[in-house]
Amino acid sequence: MLEKALRGSQRYWSWILFLLILIGVGAGCFLLQVSQGLKITGMSRDVSWGFYIAQFTFLVGVAASAVMLVLPYYLHHVKDFGRITILGEFLAVAAVSMCLLFIVVDLGRPMRLLNVLIHPTPNSILFWDMIVLNGYLFLNIVIGWTVLAAERKEVAPPAWVKPLIYISIPWAVSIHTVTAFLYAGLPGRHFWLTAIMAARFLASAFASGPALLILLMLILKKRTKFDAGQPALDKLSQIVTYAMCVSVFFVLLELFTAFYSQIPGHMHGFEYQFIGLEGHGVLVPFMWLSAILAVVALTLLINPNTRRNEKKLTVACIAVFFSLWIEKGMGLVVTGFIPNPFETVTEYVPTVPELLITLGVWATGFLILTVLYKTAIGVKEEKLG
Amino acid sequence: MEESRRSFLKIGGISVLGLSALPVLQAVAQNDGPKFKPDPNALQARQWGMVIDMNKCWEEQQKRHCTDCIAACHKVHNVPDIADPKREIKWIWTDKYEHVFPDQAHEYVPEKIRESRFLLLCNHCSNPPCVRVCPTQATFKREQDGIVMMDFHRCIGCRYCMAGCPFGARSFNWGDPRPYLAEQNMEFPTRTKGVVEKCNFCAERLDVGQIPACVEACKAKALVFGDVEDPDSEIRKILDTHYTIRRKVNLGTGPNIYYIV
Lengths: 385, 261
Description:
CATH superfamily of chain A: Formate dehydrogenase/DMSO reductase domain
CATH architecture of chain A: Up-down Bundle
Helix content of chain B: 25-40%
Order of helices and strands of chain A: HHHHHHHHHHHHHH
Shape of chain A: globular
Number of helices of chain B: 10
Oligomer: heterodimer
CATH topology of the largest domain in chain B: Alpha-Beta Plaits
């Protein structure tokens, strides 16, 4: 089936070439990082995780969101999702691949990566994160590919794939839960030390992932013969609406706990994000932008008239995606280190090579996504004739 | 042709199976006897700890800007001297009271305490979060004496331990540390870029019967090192007779560094 990705219009190949150039630039910067060390990044003794780990955290959410199609389709027989579950699964494959790459580029000694397997350490959440991420990648590749192959031959998917599909549902929840546990159990990091972290992660995941999926569906509708269908888009946008409401609600819960208790450590993180702390506040404009985007998104999504309008839905989905990308992909990880254990603030700003490596990983993810989607759409177009 | 290919695959498959069984065989064949004899002079304890008498330390600091312990530690362990505070490597260092004890500092603390520099190092916690989070056991707690150690050769540089440590006691080699070494102690490894490092309570010196370099270097006798679980030890006598404080006890990590203020 993969040969379908080898035939395409000039526009398709230009897009592939564009991604390959970004990947090349990112790879070049990564080689520089391998030879020079992580000193080429903006990270420091105080803010020891930065942009890479933040992207990883955000993208785990995008990956987990596939369950928002798989669960209604396979457990509640929501037929409208029948045509697009594969696309959800392939988006998960691309997102998890990016997650794994972001972990690799963040390592000080990537060539020792296999130490995680050679010395398995069940007390480390990172060990479990490796298990659940790789497991989820494997599940989605196998399920997506097998179901697509069956669709091409116009037969029912083989029986052995059903249990894998059912396993993939709680597994999707596990990848974001375990990723939240990476942060939630650390003493002395007040901003992360919250029992609601995993729930927050899942709520924002189920908003940002399906929002991206809606945008992808709209692009496919314009550029290919494939149309996901209005009912599917309607249901997806409802899911985004509910998830975004819950996500914002969860953030408000955090704010209440921090500011009503008035425990300084619990307030510091939010103060740093929204008003700045001890004169430092590089994140402030971004966090306010995130908040404004969230309000815009909710306004457009909650009103059914604007939600059903394709143009306004597009705006709402872009707002959801970037609002949550700023919150997770920029704010969450960095703020956990501010203030540092000595109650002083060291700020973090990513460097140019760091941003280019990040861009390279995103481009790799989009390349994987493009190839998988081209294959899937190719199969679907075959049917349409 | 077909036949020979099949037999090749068979032989190949069996060989691969055999090779993969090798480590299992080796593990089974291994005897549990000691691989080396510990030095008979090695210092032993159930849990090493340290008392830092800040009054003695400040007296010496005032007299002659004393940094003897820091210099001794950093020299013995090839700790690079990197000036950039974002990238520096610290095994033992000093900081202000409000930074060391942020949850106890208030504006009416005596000026002397507020303005003086406190000595900091790894707390060798009884319940170390850095060990809990490490995915490769590159940081581990020595069972025999409670020292929290770092294996520089196993560390993958994920820096999870740095996120886990609430005391800022861990440093990462953002670049190659060797250009920042004035001279090298050939008895102790230097580090490469991409690994985490920290104070090790001079485990390598204890194992040959020497006390930690910082304790040895302190002319003011402000540092007392000993077994906190031994009721007859010198350190316990000091703890019995002086009021001491520890950093961030409410986090439950059980720091083993005690301060007399």
